[in-house]
Design goal:
heterodimer; A: about 325 residues; alpha/beta; Rossmann fold; 2 domains; five-stranded mixed beta sheet; four-stranded mixed beta sheet; 13 helices; 12 strands; about 35% helix; about 20% strand; B: about 350 residues; 8 strands; about 10% strand; globular
């Protein structure tokens, strides 16, 4: 996925001279995960900007750049470090269009690696998507495959709204696929049905997608597997359509359970498809604790926990 | 004051400046009164900062971009924003460009490159650095100006913006309108240094100027702005004035201060400006009175006119959140307006 993102950024920067990249170590170093590797030598230090260490500045400058006609793609080195800039994200980025009566817009694509998988402990592993999803004015997306990473990035940069682009860092180097030469845009707000089945619907996104898919394959589960890809606005029709077909729902995400995206999905299902439900909706999520260093594997949902949830909803009469 | 040979362009510029200050003051008092009568919801008086704002505005060009703050009424007026735009925003009526979405005093007016104001202080400063970066990248002539009160200088955003502006050597002019108070906290209790001296630590020039004197302000800002425009890097200007009014119409300053500068005092920027006009033989009492009377007439008329404008349609409160409404918002609004 790192290579795919790098390719997309290369492409986007070559096509549009208004695109700039900024963040900590994104230039000379090519980013700590190498997503921006080589861009500085191609596009120069004015467009691939190594910034001082201050997320308020990275995000704040990006907002100003966007207001003044650039197309900034800031990188926050780890999503965990974004919180000092939350005021900029919530009170500025998300509200520029609204509060200026549409006179100014804020097309920033903010990239941030999130989730566990690199033995990063409390401060290099968080899944904070709910914080962004709860703020009107932000689009929130997260790819689970290299091809989707490219397609979503194309859509994000072509849009006119601020986008929080969350990259599952666990998948940076663990998922590989042949990426076609011409990758089409992945539309914002469209989920992907990865597998089709009749017995239940498993709704997931980002870093948990490969775990869910391998669990389903290995255990021959007859399930719809939905990769949301866009968290805001969520693909209501894909979710409800599937639930009406299967009547059973398991939601899998890595973020803590309380008010995680699973809560919203469950509410959506309850409001629109409760008559179709044959069993309780079950969430398999990270626990409501900080993300631990040593016992990372206990925190992140795994095959065992997903199977337990599947059994529970399918064995229910 | 030393007598100078003034060109007629300078003379009319000074009269225009004085006029904008008087209009700002007159409008300010009108709005405060209207608030007391329940005709306006809220307001942050700007009285005492007219010279700072007008002197700054005189040094700027049309191409320059302003990240202002919620007291910049005189700056807006001098820069050419129509008075109706200010009053419509205060009233949140259907002609307000912000469509009644923001509290009064949070102006936005693209026509004069004045970016919409947020409430959290200091948070516009990093944006100004970003805009200035864009100007520099595209090799445009404009400079970016960020205005803010003394209170903003305690925020992390101030520090980060100053640092990054200097590191990237971008054309941004930081103007601290130091009116002495962050609501109830006097500037002496906000910082152990003088504000303009902070510039030193970031590697940029810091300038102290008398913000009560529009001419001083104009001259100092012109030199600073020209230097920034010609690639000299960012600058911090501290303009000292005095917040003659309350922080806002919800604030009672008698709880924390005795008013040290009152309207008509020697330090009142309008009194100083009057004296400047007279010393320079540009105007006399008659002209001053004429400008004041005309300002009152304009403010009364515009205010009355704007009060007749109907409120925006309720649905506008739920639009322009995104380039296209989400299905969630459409559904929610449908329910609210059903």
């Amino acid at each position: 996925m790192v290579q795919a993102l790098n390719r997309a950024l290369n492409d986007i920067m070559a096509k549009n001279p208004s695109v700039v990249i900024l963040g900590e170590d994104v230039g000379v170093d090519g980013g700590v995960f190498r997503v921006t590797d080589g861009l500085i030598s191609k596009f120069g230090p004015e467009r691939v900007i190594d910034t001082p260490l201050a997320e308020i500045g990275i995000v704040g400058m990006s907002i100003g750049m966007a207001i003044s006609g650039l197309r900034p793609i800031p990188e926050i080195q780890f999503q965990d470090f974004i919180y000092t800039a939350m005021d900029q994200i919530i009170n500025q980025m998300a509200k520029i269009r609204y509060r200026s009566g549409g006179e100014y817009t804020c097309p920033v694509v903010l990239r941030a690696p999130y989730g566990g998988g690199v033995k990063g402990g409390l401060y290099h592993s968080q899944s904070g998507e709910t914080y962004f999803a709860h703020t009107a004015g932000l689009i929130v997306v997260t790819p689970s495959t290299p091809t989707d990473a490219i397609g979503l990035l194309y859509s994000a940069i072509d849009g006119n709204d601020p986008v929080i682009f969350l990259e599952p860092k666990r998948l940076y180097r663990s998922v590989k696929e042949d990426v076609p030469d011409n990758v089409p845009k992945v539309p914002i707000g469209k989920a992907k049905i990865i597998r089709e089945g009749d017995e239940l619907s498993i709704i997931t996104y980002g870093p948990m997608v490969p775990t869910v898919v391998s669990t389903v394959q290995k255990n021959n589960i007859n399930a719809d597997v939905i990769d949301l890809r866009t968290l805001v606005p969520m693909d209501r029709d894909a979710i409800i359509g599937s639930v009406k077909k299967t009547g059973r729902v398991v939601i899998v995400h890595e973020a803590p359970r309380t008010l995680g995206l699973g809560s919203e999905i469950a509410a959506l299902v309850a409001e629109r498809a409760i008559d179709s439900l044959l069993a309780p909706v079950i969430r398999v999520t990270g626990p409501d604790s900080p993300f631990p260093y040593r016992y990372e594997d206990y925190y992140v949902p795994n095959e065992k926990r997903i199977m337990k949830a599947i059994k529970r909803v399918t064995e229910e009469a | 004051m030393e007598m100078e040979k003034l060109t007629s362009a300078e003379k009319s510029a000074y009269i225009k400046a004085f006029t904008a200050m008087v209009l700002g003051r007159t409008l300010d008092k009108k709005i405060v009164n209207a608030q007391r009568q329940g005709r306006v919801g809220f307001y942050t008086p700007t009285m005492g900062q007219e010279a700072t704002q007008v002197g700054l505005s005189m040094s700027l060009g049309r191409e320059d971009f302003i990240y202002g703050y919620y007291r910049d009424v005189s700056l807006l007026l001098h820069r050419g924003a129509p008075m109706e735009a200010i009053i419509n925003q205060i009233m949140g009526n259907s002609k307000d460009v912000e469509k009644g979405r923001q509290m009064p005093s949070h102006f936005s007016y693209k026509g004069v490159n004045f970016m919409s104001v947020p409430s959290p202080v200091g948070t516009n400063l990093p944006l100004a650095v970003g805009s200035a970066y864009a100007f520099k990248l595209r090799k445009e002539k404009g400079v970016v100006v960020a205005t803010f009160g003394d209170g903003a200088t305690s925020t992390p955003d101030f520090h980060v913006a100053m640092n990054m502006a200097a590191v990237f050597h971008v054309p941004v002019v930081f103007v601290c309108e130091n009116n002495g108070w962050a609501i109830s906290l006097p500037v002496e209790k906000q910082t152990e240094t003088e504000i303009y001296k902070k510039a030193d630590a970031y590697g940029m020039k810091g300038i102290l100027v008398d913000g009560n004197n529009f001419l001083e302000m104009y001259k100092t800002c012109t030199e600073a702005v020209n230097n920034v425009r010609s690639g000299g890097g960012p600058v911090l200007i501290e303009a000292r004035s005095y917040r003659m009014g309350a922080h806002s119409t919800s604030d009672d300053p008698t709880k924390y201060r005795k008013d040290e500068v009152k309207e008509g005092d020697a330090k009142d920027p309008l009194i100083i400006a009057e004296k400047i006009l007279k010393d320079l033989n540009i105007g006399d009492d008659k002209l001053v009175e004429k400008i004041k009377a005309e300002a009152q007439r304009i403010v009364d008329a515009k205010f009355q006119e704007c009060e007749k404008i109907p409120p925006p349609e309720p649905i506008t409160a739920f639009q322009e959140v995104y380039s296209k409404n989400t299905w969630m918002l459409d559904e929610e609004v449908g329910d609210i307006l059903d």
